[in-house]
Amino acid sequence: MSETTPHQATDETTVDPAADTVSLINLIGGGVTVQTLHAVAALRIPDHLAAGARTADEVADHEGCDERAVYRLMRAAASLGVLSHEGGGRFGLTGRGQLLRTGVPGSLRSLLLVQAGQAHWQSLGLLPEAVRRGTSQTKSALGSDIFDYLARPENADQARLFAEAMGELSESVTQGAVAAVDTDGVSSVLDVGGADGHFVLGLLEAAPALRGGVLDLPHAVDGAVREAERRGLTDRFSAVAGDFFMEVPAADLYLLKTVLHDWDDERCVTILTNCRAAAPEGGRALVVETVVGEIGKPDFATMSDMAMLAITGGVERDLDEFGVLFAASGWRLDRTYPVGGGYFGLELEAV
């Protein structure tokens, strides 16, 4: 991996202060952009426009909102390419807007509501202090870490939304991983921290001989049971309420999709070690995560890394950093491949 030095960047880049100012102002306004989209999704504006273009007054009447404010919101959404202006004060949906509808394939509505919602937003606001201290400040923002916060009964709706968001985010990634992973010689699969179980259930659909399950906290596994029932897979599926820091059931193949990035190195080694301890000889694991690439290049993983630092205390890692975790927990990296959406499959073998 090569890096560009500051001198090289100066030599190769045309200095344009005016352009830099505009570019930075756009970046600074990113928070307003996110909250504008948040309002669009929370007020279900894309759902109201699903059948065709409508005026802001019509949408406001359905939602019981201020008409002028709804017009201003829809005008802003049109400038972001989420809505289209059809003339006569009527707005319609663009392709981006379709992705904010409720319950449609590929929807990102729940993901947006979580990312821009109170729990994440308050934690992100403390990012400077998280950097100073080197750890998440979510306890200062919410009174507990994010997972304990979601486990509270009074936050059940937010926990459900979080599970939906993770399902939305992982849909295309899961499809790519299911298509890529080799299940020859595998009879049992465990989705560690698998929430609604989309990953393991996708594998069960693709391989009728497999049996699988989800291990997650009690408040999360109910969603996996419902999803297995919806797919007609309850005869080959089990949901285990437990704690992967304490113990992991035996399986031929462990799935850890976007789990390790939630945790620091020590706790990642604990999770991986527990999987290794329960794995049979020849056992395998598939880790699905973003992988930090070349420094200085546009990289979704580095932005996600800031969210992890602020919200969970976790880390997005490069391949060398993953290798350290695997070696410390009894696993060897066998192969790496893209699975879509900027995510990679890291296949491990027990050693």
In brief, what are we looking at here?
The protein is α/β, with parallel strands linked by helices and 351 residues long. 50% of the residues lie in helices and 16% in strands. The chain folds into two domains: 17-103, Arc Repressor Mutant, subunit A, CATH 1.10.10; 171-350, 3-Layer(aba) Sandwich (Rossmann fold), CATH 3.40.50.
Description:
The chain has helices spanning 6-12, 17-28, 30-42, 45-48, 56-63, 67-79, 95-98, 109-115, 118-124, 127-133, 138-142, 146-151, 156-180, 198-206, 218-231, 265-278, 300-311, 319-328, and strands at residues 54-55, 83-87, 90-93, 188-192, 211-216, 237-241, 253-257, 284-290, 331-340, 343-350. It is of the alpha/beta class and 351 residues long. The protein has two domains: 17-103, Winged helix-like DNA-binding domain superfamily/Winged helix DNA-binding domain (Arc Repressor Mutant, subunit A); 171-350, Rossmann fold (3-Layer(aba) Sandwich). Helix 3 (30-42) crosses helix 6 and helix 13 packs parallel to helix 14 (198-206).
Helix-strand blueprint:
Blueprint: H1 6-12, H2 17-28, H3 30-42, H4 45-48, E1 54-55, H5 56-63, H6 67-79, E2 83-87, E3 90-93, H7 95-98, H8 109-115, H9 118-124, H10 127-133, H11 138-142, H12 146-151, H13 156-180, E4 188-192, H14 198-206, E5 211-216, H15 218-231, E6 237-241, E7 253-257, H16 265-278, E8 284-290, H17 300-311, H18 319-328, E9 331-340, E10 343-350
Parallel strand pairs: 4-5, 4-7, 5-6, 7-8
Antiparallel strand pairs: 1-3, 2-3, 8-10, 9-10
Helix pairs in contact: 3-6, 5-6, 8-13, 13-14
